[in-house]
Design brief:
244 residues; mainly alpha; 15 helices; elongated; disordered C terminus
Length: 244
């Protein structure tokens, strides 16, 4: 069936009539692992995977198909769409980890993936996947806004801090990105986590009136005078070192 479009459609239609996700996955995994499977056939298999009820069988099939989806931007997009139908955060992480950050991910697909990650309930699983894909996001600056939007959906300040830490370490942040970062950090409940990030972000704000004002506004959202003094004190010491 693989080499004939009409036979392929008939074959896929026959598979779709199967009720058991386990049996569907058995048949389709056998076909999907073939090196000779063409892109249209893989697209059909991904579509069937997306419609499966069982998260486990869906993940098993998607994982088997990940090798074909990494090197084709259209298949990568269909793969991410299939992943968006998963209920389990753990299984979502498994599927995204299988395709990995080094595939042919265009900007629209990257934004869709960040949207899928942002909808995950588990802060830990969400942070783990975001960090896995951070290098790929960093190489596409247009996706940083989507990354920050996903970070805003993390309730745990500790996990939020983990995913934002590599961002504040960057040396090429734009003014808009810094403003967005300060907005996310300002909403933290933990003054300790907030202070740690603000300390590192302060160096980006020096000498820019708009950024300095936004930075001071973020510091003033802290309830702890100790943490405020820590941020201001470190900023002052760094300023003094820079003046020598």
């Amino acid at each position: 069936s693989r080499g004939d479009a009409n036979l392929r459609r008939a074959y896929v239609a026959a598979v779709q009539k199967m009720d058991s996700d386990y049996e569907k996955r058995r048949v389709l995994s056998e076909l999907g692992t073939s090196r000779n499977a063409d892109r249209e056939f893989i697209a059909d298999l991904l579509a069937i995977a997306a419609g499966m009820d069982s998260d486990y069988e869906k993940v098993e099939l998607l994982t088997d198909l990940s090798q074909h989806s990494q090197t084709d931007s259209e298949l990568y997009a269909i793969y991410i769409d299939a992943a968006s139908h998963l209920d389990s955060d753990y299984e979502t992480k498994r599927v995204l980890a299988a395709i990995g950050p080094n595939g042919e991910m265009d900007l629209a697909t990257g934004a869709k993936m960040m949207e899928v990650i942002g909808r995950m309930d588990s802060d830990y699983e969400k942070a783990e996947v975001m960090l896995l894909f951070y290098d790929a996001i960093e190489s596409k600056p247009e996706l940083l806004a989507s990354y920050l939007a996903a970070a805003e959906n993390i309730e745990s300040d500790y996990e939020s801090s983990r995913v934002l830490e590599p961002v504040v370490k960057r040396s090429n942040l734009t003014e808009t990105e810094i403003i967005d970062l300060l907005g996310v950090i300002s909403r933290f409940s933990s003054d300790y986590e907030k202070g740690n990030l603000l300390e590192r972000l302060g160096r980006h704000c020096r000498g820019n009136d708009r950024l300095e004002e936004a930075f001071f506004d973020a510091v003033e959202t802290m309830d702890s005078e100790y943490e405020q003094d820590r941020v201001y004190g470190n900023l002052h010491r760094k300023n003094r070192r820079g003046s020598h």
